[in-house]
Specification:
It is built from 15 helices and 10 strands. It has 361 residues and is α+β, with helices and mostly antiparallel strands. It folds into 2 domains: 13-92 and 114-186, NADH Oxidase; 205-268 and 278-356, no CATH class. A hairpin with a 5-residue loop joins strand 5 and strand 6. The longest helix has 20 residues, at 117-136. Its cofactor is [4Fe-4S] cluster; cob(II)alamin. Cob(II)alamin binds at residues 68, 146, 170, 181, 228, 253-254. InterPro entries: 4Fe4S_Fe-S-bd, 4Fe4S_Fe_S_CS, QueG, QueG_DUF1730. It is an enzyme of class 1 (oxidoreductase).
Length: 361
């Protein structure tokens, strides 16, 4: 943190906080809130989650000790956190459901259809910090967008951006859950906002719809069963008993958001960066399975999908093809990868071929 800054004079902290929210909206954020750094309850829940092994192979969740839940340990001098959300849904929910219902189509989680959100939000938050500095002079801050040990959802909840629902995603009462989060850790003594409170009530739609029953109880997610974890974070073989439940989902899963009644209030994003690129919203499994490594990295340039790598891309699509109809085209596509140099790809291709031959369905 910056050792000195001019504080919030000549205006009050309340005035500066309002300016920050106004500037944030002008930069494309739908909402900006401010909170302190106390995350005692979230820290306890995180510890219990890690102790239960629900993080799977995401070792980074435990690697930084209490720096994740104590912002001033991660960035010394942090007094308040500015939390911001940006809508990303590029289409109507009916179109999303149609993509899921067509077994020949590849389903990519809607947050990953466009440009990598990390870059978009980081740039906007940096601009917000520069606006603050232009107003009050140099101050201490760090920008975070899902890029460091930061408890973004508990911070956003405390900042009044919504509540953490039973599916463990953040929900806003007038905007649903289709949005990204980013943070500014600051050394400014700003007034904090009031949380909204939980409004899930008796609803359990997200628990009922989860294809792999990864939401093991309200507000409890076992990542080891979650399709987003299995298709994105998990680097090895996808457990065979879970493969049939992946359906045509090749990158992430949106089912729990699709059934959430609060998402009837969600609006479409106005950000061009979040619009689908390379036809990913309508692409077929066979088309995407035909991408060689060079094509994959070219088409995934600037996308969150790029971090997956070509090997896991093929692994995921092989499983999806095995879950679909046994067409001549699907079998031919899988056979074209039967001798792939990667044992991981070969294993999932063989499984898919067995499924389509009738021995696995």
């Amino acid at each position: 943190m910056h050792p000195e800054h001019s504080g919030v004079q000549p205006e009050t902290g309340d005035d500066l906080a309002e300016h920050i929210k106004t500037w944030g909206k002008a930069l494309g954020f739908q909402q900006v809130g401010i909170t302190d750094t106390r995350l005692h309850a979230a820290e306890s829940r995180l510890r219990e989650w890690l102790d239960a092994g629900h993080h799977g192979s995401m070792d980074y969740m435990a690697r930084h000790g209490t720096k994740r839940s104590r912002p001033a340990e991660l960035v010394p001098g942090t007094l308040t956190v500015v939390s911001a959300r940006m809508d990303y849904m590029p289409e109507h929910l009916a179109e999303v459901r149609h993509a899921l219902d067509d077994p020949s189509q590849a389903f990519v989680s809607r947050y990953a259809l466009g440009r990598d959100y990390h870059k978009v939000l980081r740039r906007r938050l940096q601009h917000l910090a520069e606006r603050i500095a232009a107003r009050i002079g140099p101050f201490g801050y760090r920008v975070f967008v899902d890029s460091a040990p930061v408890m973004e959802k508990p911070l956003a909840e405390k900042a009044g951006l919504g509540w953490i629902g039973k599916h463990t995603n953040l929900i806003h009462p007038r905007a649903g859950s289709w949005f990204f989060l980013g943070e500014l850790y600051t050394d400014l003594p700003l007034p904090v906002d009031t949380p909204t409170g939980d409004h899930c009530g008796r609803c359990h739609a997200c628990l009922d719809v989860c294809p792999t029953e990864a939401i093991i109880a309200p507000y409890q997610l076992d990542a080891r069963r979650c399709i987003s974890y299995l298709t994105i974070e998990h680097k090895g073989s996808i457990p065979e008993d879970l493969r049939p439940h992946l359906g045509n989902r090749i990158y992430g899963c949106d089912d729990c958001q699709l059934v959430c009644p609060w998402n009837r209030f969600a609006g479409s994003s106005r950000e061009e960066d979040f619009l689908a690129r390379h036809g990913l919203d309508t692409a077929t499994l066979i088309d995407l399975f035909s991408w060689d490594e060079a094509t994959f990295f070219q088409r995934a340039e600037g996308s969150a999908i790029r971090r997956l790598g070509h090997e896991r891309w093929l692994r995921n699509i092989a499983v999806a093809l095995g879950n679909g109809p046994a067409t001549t085209q699907a079998v031919s596509a899988l056979r074209s990868r039967h001798s792939h140099p990667s044992p991981l790809v070969r294993e999932h291709v063989e499984w898919a071929l067995q499924r389509l031959s009738g021995s696995g369905h």
